[in-house]
């Protein structure tokens, strides 16, 4: 595929490998190498994931019995807010673009780095400042608004909202700058012959994601600033007693936060495209359709926000319009799914751990997507709104979708990043726990929601007890699954087998360079002559 | 995108770039030439400007909604502003956009002393703008026009109810009618205009300050001969930012000062 000699493909970068090329903590904190920045994001995001995960387990433990189980109602509200805010702003939004986008995107293009390496490092620092601002509320009284900061409660609560929204604002800035960096990189830094119709589908997915980051995040920025201004100055734009309107807050918030759902899931879809084609040993089916459907999803994502507000006092006409528009999302999503299935059809499928996670994604995301249609229907949503049905739906999309893809991507690119193989057996066992545990946790929540159990509540009626207990047990299984992933990673660092340049038989450019790669990615700039997935 | 002059051998790992002592520009290692780097940087700057406009866009949308619902509050509110100061500031900012453009032009043509003078004049304009804003703000604060819980102005609600009385009832939106029917609510809603005034001009003022700092930075670099006809991307980038800040004011001025 690429005009690199066999000798170059299998060589070891040796002393020029990016991990050891420069030494010491300072060389990491001042690095402008996109690969090292990716690793720094990875350490941060995985730490936040651990914290967010512990809060999830605590929430489920509290809900094991009706009434008080382990904590007071006020503490529970804080746990719930921390879980949501940490997982959304500090884990799922940055995870795939900032870690894998940073690491593999420039290599996939055949570039030496992203377009603005220093800005890339600055983004990491901005992200960390934002994360620390937001996380510091853990020790400064906490926040109890939920991750959505709905007014008027977020204006009147005595908890530390200002610090959290400023943290989220700052992390949003990092998100914008990362997206901007990727767009320019994709446009300007492709290797010779790497035309737009030859870039891998992961790159297309990150491109569409970046567009959303650039266009939607500023609106969240101003909204969060206004929340801070409301609390400090009382400007009154969202405060009904001062002539303002809290529904406007919801419009602004969801104008960002609905597209943000696609910031979370489009990169995951990009990973799935890579995994499915590599582990099926077959050229991807419908390259163009998958690439453009990412843009269709990004485009539609900007005109569906009102489906969060069917019962918030928006007009009936607006509700109907948003309902129809929301259904449109199903079309490009289904295009992707059917193309992946068509790719697997008659492929030589290998069920290595990353592929298991990809297939898990396809199952769970389909359930998440189809239950989304229930919620998009105006009449049904009136009943399902603010019940556990919604909780189950978005966890099927966010955990069953994004986190499954993230873990698959982690196991897939780990050998490239660190030059060590993780144990495939441990990977597969972890998948069994995560996949089963996930369904045990969240499927009962669909039933609970349909039975009418409201979301976010501390207490519930006795008849919901058994389903809640099943759900809590499931959360332990998921926790165990991720612990096994962690063990697999630690074991790989200690005694992992050395990874070859291309352990999975991938065709994209990152598999044509050493594992771990040379600090400038390639010894010689590659010249691309074919599409990204030329199997057969 | 042409692919001539592909670098096949990489020397060193440095990402450093800039103008050397002979005034020649060395591009960063991951670009293939100076023009490639310039084009990429320009694209990045324009994308960033899109995010600036969207951020202010949120405020403009909120303004449009509330102006359509509560027009009398905005009309009365703007009568509390001094059009004279607003006009002077508009002229100052437009002048500063011109001197900024000159700063870029003189850097492009290697006339560094003139460039430094132009950039210094731009900073002077920015300071003048902020000075006038200071006068305006302190006047408003003195009159108790800070929004929300700080609002103590007694004249505003009085003027507002007189204004509404003079209007035909069918010209009022249902929401405005509802508020106008209850003096207590009218009094509470009156500060809304100044919520917008301070949020919009405050955020804009912050951008003016940041812009002035950035112009100072490129002025110092110009003085140290870090730019030349071969490399002036930062000056141009700061210039684009400054013009956007200026452009936003061009919209803020009529929306806040002339709407009455």
Notes on the structure:
The complex is a heterodimer of chains A (536) and B (260). Chain A is mainly alpha-helical and 536 residues long. Chain A has one domain: Cytochrome C Oxidase, Chain A. Chain A is built from 17 helices and no strands. Chain A has helices at 6-10, 25-29, 34-62, 73-109, 117-136, 153-156, 161-188, 201-232, 246-280, 287-301, 316-328, 330-344, 353-376, 378-384, 388-418, 424-451, 465-495. Chain A is globular. With 260 residues, chain B is mainly alpha-helical. Chain B has one domain: Four Helix Bundle (Hemerythrin (Met), subunit A) (Up-down Bundle). A two-stranded antiparallel ribbon of chain B has the order 1-2. In chain B, β1 and β2 form a beta hairpin. In chain B, α2 packs across α5. The longest helix of chain B has 36 residues, at 34-69. Mean pLDDT of chain B is 90; it is low at 1-14. At the A-B interface, α5, α7 and α8 of A face α1 and α8 of B.
Summarize the structure.
By secondary structure, chain A is an all-alpha fold. Chain A is built from 17 helices and no strands. Chain B contains 9 helices and 2 strands.
CATH homologous superfamily label of chain B: Cytochrome c oxidase, subunit III, four-helix bundle
pLDDT averaged residue by residue of chain B: 90
Q: How many strands, what sense, and barrel or not for the largest sheet of chain A?
A: none
The chain-level structural class of chain A is mainly alpha
Residue share in helix of chain B = over 70%
Count of all domains of chain B: 1
What proportion strand of chain A? under 5%
């Amino acid at each position: 595929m690429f005009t690199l000699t066999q000798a170059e493909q299998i060589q070891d970068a040796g002393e020029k490998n990016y991990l050891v090329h420069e030494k010491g903590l300072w060389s990491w904190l001042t690095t402008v190498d996109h690969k090292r920045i990716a690793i720094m994001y990875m350490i941060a995001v995985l730490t936040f994931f651990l914290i967010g995960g512990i809060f999830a387990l605590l929430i489920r433990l509290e809900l094991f019995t009706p009434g008080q189980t382990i904590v007071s109602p006020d503490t529970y509200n804080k746990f719930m807010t921390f879980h949501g805010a940490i997982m959304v702003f500090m884990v799922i939004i940055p995870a795939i673009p900032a870690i894998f986008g940073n690491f593999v995107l420039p290599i996939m293009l055949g570039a030496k780095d992203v377009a603005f390496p220093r800005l890339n490092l600055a983004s990491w620092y901005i992200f960390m400042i934002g994360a620390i601002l937001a996380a510091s509320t853990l020790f400064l009284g906490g926040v109890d608004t939920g991750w959505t900061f709905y007014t008027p409660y977020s204006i009147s609560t005595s908890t530390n909202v200002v610090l959290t929204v400023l943290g989220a604002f700052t992390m949003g800035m990092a998100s914008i700058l990362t997206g901007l960096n990727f767009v320019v990189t994709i446009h300007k830094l492709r290797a010779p012959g790497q035309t737009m119709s030859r870039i891998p589908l992961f790159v297309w997915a990150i491109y569409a994601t970046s567009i959303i980051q650039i266009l939607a995040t500023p609106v969240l920025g101003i909204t969060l600033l206004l929340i801070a201004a409301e609390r400090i100055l009382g400007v009154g734009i969202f405060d009904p007693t001062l002539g303002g309107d809290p529904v406007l807050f919801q419009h602004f918030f969801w104008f960002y936060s609905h597209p943000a759902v696609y910031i979370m899931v489009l990169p995951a879809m990009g990973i799935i495209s890579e995994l499915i084609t590599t582990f099926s040993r077959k050229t991807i089916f419908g390259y163009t359709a998958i690439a453009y459907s990412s843009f269709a999803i990004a485009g539609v994502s900007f005109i569906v926000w009102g489906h969060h507000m069917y019962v918030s006092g928006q007009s009936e006409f607006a509700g109907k319009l948003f309902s129809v528009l929301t259904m449109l999302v199903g079309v490009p999503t289904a295009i992707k799914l059917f193309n992946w299935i068509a790719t697997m059809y008659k492929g030589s499928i290998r069920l290595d751990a990353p592929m298991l996670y990809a297939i898990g994604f396809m199952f769970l995301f389909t359930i998440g997507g189809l239950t989304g249609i229930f919620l998009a229907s105006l009449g049904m949503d009136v009943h399902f709104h603010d019940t556990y049905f919604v909780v189950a739906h978005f966890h099927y999309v966010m955990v069953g979708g994004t986190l499954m893809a993230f873990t698959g991507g982690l196991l897939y690119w780990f050998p490239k990043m660190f030059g060590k193989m993780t144990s495939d057996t441990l990977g597969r066992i972890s998948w069994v726990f995560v996949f089963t545990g996930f369904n045990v946790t969240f499927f009962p929540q669909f039933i609970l929601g349909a039975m009418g159990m409201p979301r976010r509540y501390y207490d519930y009626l006795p008849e919901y007890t058994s389903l809640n207990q099943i759900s809590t047990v499931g959360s332990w299984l998921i926790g165990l699954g991720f612990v096994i992933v962690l063990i697999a990673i630690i074991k790989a660092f200690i005694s992992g087998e050395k990874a070859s340049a291309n352990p999975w038989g991938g065709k994209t450019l990152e598999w044509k360079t050493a594992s771990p790669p040379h600090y400038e990615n390639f010894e010689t700039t590659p010249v691309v002559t074919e599409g990204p997935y030329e199997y057969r | 995108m042409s692919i001539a002059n592909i670098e096949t051998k990489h020397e060193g790992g440095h990402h450093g770039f800039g103008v050397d002592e002979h005034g020649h520009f060395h591009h960063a290692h991951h670009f293939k030439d100076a023009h490639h780097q310039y084009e990429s940087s320009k694209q990045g700057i324009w994308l960033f400007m899109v995010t600036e406009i969207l951020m202010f866009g949120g405020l403009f949308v909120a303004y449009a909604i509330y102006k359509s619902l509560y027009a009398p509050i905005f009309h009365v509110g703007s009568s509390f502003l001094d059009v004279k100061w607003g006009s002077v500031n508009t002229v100052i900012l437009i002048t500063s956009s011109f001197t900024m453009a000159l700063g870029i032009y003189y850097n492009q043509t290697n006339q560094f002393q003139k460039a430094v003078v132009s950039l210094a004049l731009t900073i002077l304009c920015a300071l003048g703008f902020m000075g006038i804003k200071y006068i305006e703000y302190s006047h408003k604060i003195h009159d108790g026009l800070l929004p929300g819980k700080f609002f103590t102005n007694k004249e505003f609600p009085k003027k507002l109810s007189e204004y509404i009385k003079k209007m035909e009832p069918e010209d009022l939106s249902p929401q405005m009618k509802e508020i106008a029917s209850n003096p207590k609510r009218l009094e509470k809603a009156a500060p809304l205009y100044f919520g917008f005034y301070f949020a919009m001009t405050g955020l804009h003022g912050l951008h003016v300050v940041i812009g002035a700092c950035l112009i100072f930075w490129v002025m110092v670099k110009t003085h140290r001969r870090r730019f030349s006809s071969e490399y002036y991307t930062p000056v141009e980038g700061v210039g684009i930012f400054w013009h956007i800040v200026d452009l936003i004011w061009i919209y803020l001025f009529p929306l806040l000062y002339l709407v009455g």
